[in-house]
Write a structure and sequence with these properties.
Elements (H helix, E strand, L loop, with lengths): L4 E5 L3 H13 L3 E5 L2 H8 L6 E5 L1 E2 L2 E2 H10 L5 E6 L4 H10 L3 E4 L4 H31 L9 H13 L6 E4 L6 H10 L8 E5 L8 H6 E2 L11 E2 L1 H4 L4 E5 L6 H13 L1 E2 L8 E2 L3 E6 L3 H6 L5 H7 L3 E3 L10 H12 L10 E2 L1 H9 L5 H15 L4 E2 L6 H10 L11 H19 L4 H8 L3 H11 L16
Parallel strand pairs: 1-2, 1-3, 3-6, 6-7, 8-15, 8-16, 9-12, 12-15, 17-18
Antiparallel strand pairs: 4-5, 10-11, 13-14
Length: about 475
């Protein structure tokens, strides 16, 4: 069902009503005007996509209506309907800003064909806007996770994507709920339609209704032009409502009606418009608990959670971290390989894998980006990691470094020395085995021991068994 909104302008009641009826049966929403003055008043609201407009009317000329509408910034597409099939009339209408014209007697199949062409072109323009953003949002390509939890998420996405079911994606901040929503859209029949992500908490409360449902020109103070709401912008595609739990109750009620009826009415408009928009919602809060607290409508919760996908936090899927780090590094320098690719020292990598990641994948991405800026010789070391992660590292490695004395680099050296010595000790003095367990080469182990020992007077001499 298209959301194209059509105004039929003609002073002949019979012709106007028959034409409006044919357009309505084709699935478009329709309004009527009996003359130039009435049409101008309705067009001023700015919510009509197309006007089927007679040229000769008792109170004025349809060509003047087109010209005045264009001067007022009204973007409605005009198709002129005329009984005076002269070339001069057609050229004058097109020069005034009309898109096309048809002659009386009207062939309704021709009218509907013109409308379908306009609808397709309008949809293409909307998609082009979304596509430009989607190209940047979807690049680089998604990382294929290997953990059981994320493989289950991938399975659920594949199951629900081909349907039109609403989906509720839950999980902590930074787990990738927006990426999962995009995957659902890309694997659905709507993949060629717009994907419109919206952060519900970022919209001021007094603008929510206008943002979601749109408004006509003059609908409220400051509405100097008509605006299509989010549901109409995403018509034929997917609207992703992130942080859905932050919507106030009065907007939850309006959202419920839209989800159930698939209809919206812009502020200031008398016309209800049909929309074909799939809803995917996401939240990092416990909506069931918010329902119990009276902060979220139970009926809306049940409607949205018809199909629910829970994203596990990164700390519960540590097996994904090494590959995810390499994925992030590759995409910081697309095409980089070999010596030009950024690498992570094994010790730094172990610290990152052991970290709890309260900010999940988003935090990991930020840490990797920061480390790449600080890294020297295209190699990320422990010193390039944030101090908060360094300070947590001793706990992650069983309390390797208990002291916080000295500056950051001195603490890092003591941490590295302690880990190296403990690894050699655990290997019974076998440095080759210790190097294997640490994931570094034997020469790298000796190099690190030589580099670190002179900088820490507390380290003492390291004997053949690795003991200080």
């Amino acid at each position: 069902m298209s959301s194209l909104h059509v105004l039929v302008v003609d002073d002949e009641p019979a012709l106007r009503q028959i034409l409006a009826g044919a357009v309505t049966r084709a699935g478009y929403s329709v309004d009527q005007a009996s003359g130039v003055a009435e049409a101008a008043a309705k067009l001023a609201r700015g919510d009509f996509d197309v006007a089927l407009c007679d040229i000769k009317m008792p109170d004025g000329n349809g060509i003047d209506l087109v010209r005045n509408s264009r001067a007022a910034g009204i973007e409605t597409t005009f198709i002129m309907v005329t009984g005076f099939a002269s070339l001069d009339t057609a050229v004058e209408a097109l020069r005034a800003g009309a898109s096309d014209y048809i002659t009386k007697p009207v062939q309704y199949e021709e009218v509907l064909h013109r409308l379908s062409q306009i609808d397709a072109l309008r949809g293409l323009r909307e998609e082009n806007k979304s596509l430009r953003k989607a190209v940047s949002d979807s690049a680089p390509k998604l990382y294929r996770f290997s953990s059981p939890g994320m493989l289950e998420v991938e399975r659920l996405v594949g199951k629900v994507a081909p349907t039109d079911s609403t989906v509720l994606i839950t999980g902590e901040s930074g787990t990738g709920k927006g990426i999962a929503a995009r995957q659902i859209h890309d694997q659905s029949r709507r993949r060629d339609g717009p994907f419109l992500p919206v952060n519900c908490s970022a919209i001021p409360e007094h603008l929510l209704e206008s943002e979601f449902f749109g408004h006509t020109k003059g609908a409220f103070t400051g509405a100097d032009h008509a605006r299509k709401g989010l549901f109409l912008q995403a018509d034929g595609g997917t609207l992703f409502l992130d942080e859905i739990g932050e919507l106030p109750l009065h907007m939850q009620t309006k959202l419920l009606h839209m989800v159930e009826d698939k209809e919206v009415r812009p502020l200031g408009s008398e016309q209800v418009r049909r929309v074909d928009t799939r809803i995917i919602a996401a939240t990092n809060s416990d909506l069931a608990e918010r329902v119990r607290e009276g902060k979220f409508r139970e009926d809306l919760y049940f409607r949205l959670s018809m199909f629910q996908i829970q994203l596990p936090p990164l700390r519960e899927r540590q097996t994904d971290i090494p590959g995810l780090m390499q994925f992030l590094l590759r995409n910081l320098r697309p095409g980089a390989s070999g010596a030009s690719a950024i690498k992570i020292d094994p010790l730094a990598e172990e610290i990152l894998i052991a970290h709890a990641w309260p900010g999940n994948v988003r935090e990991l991405e930020n840490v990797i980006n920061r480390a790449c800026i600080l890294a020297e010789d295209d190699r990320i070391g422990v010193a390039d990691l944030p101090s908060t992660i360094i300070q947590a590292a001793p706990r992650a490695f069983g309390g390797a470094v208990a002291t916080s004395e000295g500056n950051l680099r001195e603490q890092i050296r003591r941490l590295e020395i302690d880990i190296l010595l403990r690894a050699i000790s655990d290997a019974g003095g076998d440095r080759k085995l210790a190097a294997q367990r640490l994931g570094i080469g034997l020469s790298s182990l000796y190099r690190k021991l030589e580099e670190l020992q002179p900088h820490d007077t507390n380290a003492g001499d390291i004997d053949a068994t690795g003991q200080a």
